[in-house]
Amino acid sequence: MMAEERGSRGRKETSGLLMSVIRALSSSSSLEQREKEKQRVEKEFRESDRRLDNLVAENYEDLTSIIKAFSTISDRVQASRDRIAKVKDNLLSCKNLLHCKRDELRKLWIEGVEQRTVVEMMERIENIKEVPEKLNGYMEKKHYLHAAELITNAVSLLEGDLVEVEGLRDLKVDLISKKKHLFEVIVDELHTQIYVKTTEAKFNRQGSGRRDKKDGGGIQRALVGKLSSGGQNELQVPSSRQEPHLVVEELDVDPEEDQPHFIGVLVESLAILKRLSTAVEVIRHRMKPELLGLIHRAAQQIVEIASQQGENVLNQHQPRHLLELLELVIKQFRSVAHTHQLVLQHLKRTTTSASPDEPDITLYGIVEVWGKIQEALQIFLGDYLDMRNTAATQQQTASSFEEHTDIASYFARRRTAKPKKAPLFRFEASSHAISMHSYFEEQKQDFYGPVEAMPSSPTRGAPYKQTFVCKPTANNITENYEDLTSIIKAFSTISDRVQASRDRIAKVKDNLLSCKNLLHCKRDELRKLWIEGVEQRTVVEMMERIENIKEVPEKLNGYMEKKHYLHAAELITNAVSLLEGDLVEVEGLRDLKVDLISKKKHLFEVIVDELHTQIYVKTTEAKFNRQGSGRRDKKDGGGIQRALVGKLSSGGQNELQVPSSRQEPHLVVEELDVDPEEDQPHFIGVLVESLAILKRLSTAVEVIRHKMKPELLGLIHRAAQQIVEIASQQGENVLNQHQPRHLLELLELVIKQFRSVAHTHQLVLQHLKRTTTSASPDEPDITLYGIVEVWGKIQEALQIFLGDYLDMRNTAATQQQTASSFEEHTDIASYFARRRTAKPKKAPLFRFEASSHAISMHSYFEEQKQDFYGPVEAMPSSPTRGAPYKQTFVCKPTANNITAIYNPLQQFIQEIEAATGCQAGASPLQSFITEFVKKTFLGQVHYNIMSDIATATKGTEGKGFDAMRFVTDQKTQKELNVPKPLLQSTVAVYSCIQDLHHLMQDLPDYGDQFLDLIGKILKDYKDTCQMAYIDIVQPDSEDNRIISAMWAKDEDISRLLRSLPNWLYLQNEKELKPVDLHFSEADMRAMNSKESEILTGNLSSSETTIPLHEIISDSSQLRTLGNLHESLEWFSNKMKEFVHNLPASPRVAVGKGCQFSKETMQSLLTLAQDFQELADMCLLVLHLEVRVHCFYYIIPVAKSSNYSGALDDMDPDANVLKLNKDLTGIEEAMSQSLQPRKFMYIFDGLGHLIATLLISSAQFLTRINENGIKKMCRNIFAMQQNLSNITSSREVDLDRARQYYELLHLSLEEILTSIVEQGPQFSELEYTHIFSLRQRSRPGSDPKVFKGKLDKLKEVLREHHV
Fold it and tell me: Which residues are in the Exocyst complex component Sec8 middle helical bundle domain (predicted)?
């Protein structure tokens, strides 16, 4: 906006300037005034040119990139158009081809249909063949529902599509018989569930069974109490309003565990078999026999228990057994009735859900069940009360029960009856008695039913035959008198009430008929009165409505103040609809109508704003508390990151509870006496319901969709402001300090808020779906937004947020050149090559910042910016949510901020992908992060790493690798915990690798790229170090090489030196191996002799001296070699440690983590070993270089000096002094660059080598006298003293050299005598050289005598095995 205002202001100033110039030129006539105007115009034009130049210079890169992007986009659009035209042409040609071959395609389609039909029929036949086996499996496990469906489908298929298949006729007959058998099994199982399974728990005998007769009254009272309780603990049966649910049979569950469900399965199976009517008839027909069989089984159980207790129930009169039997039978009958009620419920559900074309089924009722129970009880009581006088045929017939006889008279005291006389005759076997017995049997069958109707299932026993638990007698009624009396009274009362109700209903019916006749006579008068009443009632109602409408504004304000928006919406909607409907003609309400319509619009805006407040403010305000104390120091960033990852992984357990997709929200009811904001989910439902009442849901959805992105950006802004305020209170300036932990805290807070916002949106969507599905059909369809769209807006907001913090528009580094692509193979050694001095660029002659083209390009950039970041006016302007979005930074924007937030981002991206259901890595936010890392961050890392390495390793002009002269200071040395200084380049490279290692931990998904870069850096740095080493050991040309380097490269010398104990001691000490390497003095002398022998054999045989260019005369170069050795050895150890820790180093935070191949790790170990080899080579070169220096200075001592002068020279030889000075310089350089053990390795054995050189130099002396002997001894002493100062030990080997030259003081005979007496101290060759030197020093001696002395020397030495 500021840029647009500035551009428009500039255009206005330019146009105003031109108009003023025109007016001045037209009004002025003097040349002076016109000249002034001209100067002013030129000045303004120069100012415009200057501004134009500045703007072009500032935006040159942007202009270039935009022009390139525009060109690329234009090419892509053109290519897309060409491809679309090509596709269109292909489609047209395809259409023509299809049209031409239409008949062939139709024929092929028909053949395909026929083949598919045949295949389907074959599959059906294969499936039908498996039906008998599956049916047997289902029936064994009592899965009757699956069995019924299977056999029904199979039979219908055999009677339908497969009816013509001849091979399936036998199978069809078999399946039809199995279907009939399945019906019989299901019906029998249903009776088992009703009469056996339901009552088997009741067969436990009630009480102890040992009660005496006195306890009968208590048992009777208990029985009456249990009967009155109605069976509270019986089988739970659904009420008449609560229908049973649809029956579903699970194959992995025992079907008999849940008996009500199993009964439903049986009924459903009968319905599938379409045999419900037959099953109902069987149930009705077998009901009475089953009940009698139940009584029989109960009596048998009581008789068995009594027999176990030693009682004979038939010979003893024990009415208590009858009482227990009655109690047990009543409980069983109650359970049977309840089970029948459950069966009837399932039958009703099945019949009501049946198809209309099925025949109607006449069900039995629960009244019929209770009737059958009463019939069974009548038979049971008739047997026990001896109603047929089988036990007392001689008693007189009792008077009828209907006569007015006092029942108490039966229990009154009677006089003792006189004993009757025995009859003289009995007629049991007479013809009359036999005929009477047959008559009684026929009457019994007519009254009790035929015997063959009894159940004969083995589960329920044989046909009914009464098993008595006591003697049948009429006196049994006395035991149950009180119970029977209460039951008779209750039945009489109920009967009287039913009769009274019938009389009242008949009376009401008569009154209604008479009222109907009267109303028919006065119909016209009543119609007139009714119309007048309706008119008056309508007027009264209209007046009440008008009065209520006048009170609407006041009530509406009250509701809105208390945020009762549902009542407010209903109130104003009803009021407006009334004003636009019945009261539309009332002139006095027009102003009120306009006011209410405006208030309705205002209410809609308030509700929408309140809904946004609930989504983006109330839901997230608890999250604005900063995680943790807020007083952490700067070192606590890692702890915050770990806490963030842990909290993010918890998945937000304390978030807003949202109903699942299957669990719809309940209907919303608003209570006026409750604060609506206490229950946020309910309040959101109230807001959505209010919008539905206002019929503005579609508009509200569009507003929510439009304001979603600005609200999310405002949420980020508020979170950043809070973190900045907290940091300011702690005295931190977040913009002047690079503190990614603040960004991590901000991201943690924003992610938790976004998660809460998404959960709240999900709740809003649930309410919106409920409201739209329950809306009337005449309302227009509403296109809702989805949760995927919400997550999409969240990702867009995060992209803007991350784009600012990751410096994607280069606001913090506009002057940096674009780094090369990360995939490009750039040679790191190129950074260390010499470059020419860059020439200063010329200033541009013209600038175009204020030109029309530049202004139009600037406008284009602003439009693109608005398209990407959203319009400014769309931002929320509510005082609750602050001003329009403007990024408040909590740290400096830089691309490196991705390292602190990558892992939490990846975890949140996974959560987004799981919520949206997209594939892993396919979300826009993941694409955004991936594109940034690959195209920007990795290139910047590559550029920064290479720049740091180039800064640390670039050398100055001149020969040699100057960067190797720069070592670390004491502070860095102490931080690295190293005893000697290291090369700055090595430390810089290691620091870069450490940075890459940290990046591998922070960005584990790109570990392979970072590891490849590390390998590339190591290879390039190895080449650089190799070049530095070559520059030292091969300074000029390939022909001029350093002798020590040649020896170190020689395989024999290198193998020998690496096998010597002093080298092994170094390696063991370096690897911390506890190896005991103690050597005797003889072993050390042998080791030194071996080394001296091979080195002397390479040089001392030459008669020429060593040239100066074949040694490293500059001690600083030697110090550089020492620094290079220490640095590379330390670097190699660090690299090995890095590689060994590599598999466990990247933490598996999100995604797949880092998995490195063995080949990659082996290549890194090889590079580390290469560095170690180069370090060892440097140490060997130093070791050999010191010895080459001794050759260089000691060989001329014998060849160039005079030892036969007349004057006694008191000073040592000049070359000896130079050697001492050179060794002192080397000592100073090595002590600064090498560790003590390596320093000792370089100078260890040097005395023995010098002694060997001095002794072997005797062959090069022409002659020597006494003064020369003294001079040679002084040379030896000077070198011994210097070496002792260096090694801090007496060099005994130089004493041997001095003793060798002191032999010249003796004659040949004396030398031979000393050998014989003391033994040989030197070799035969050394004795031969000293004999020859003595012979040369004394001219005129007889050669034969000298030869004889040599022969004698050989004999003496041979005797001593030398």
Answer: 255-432, 676-853
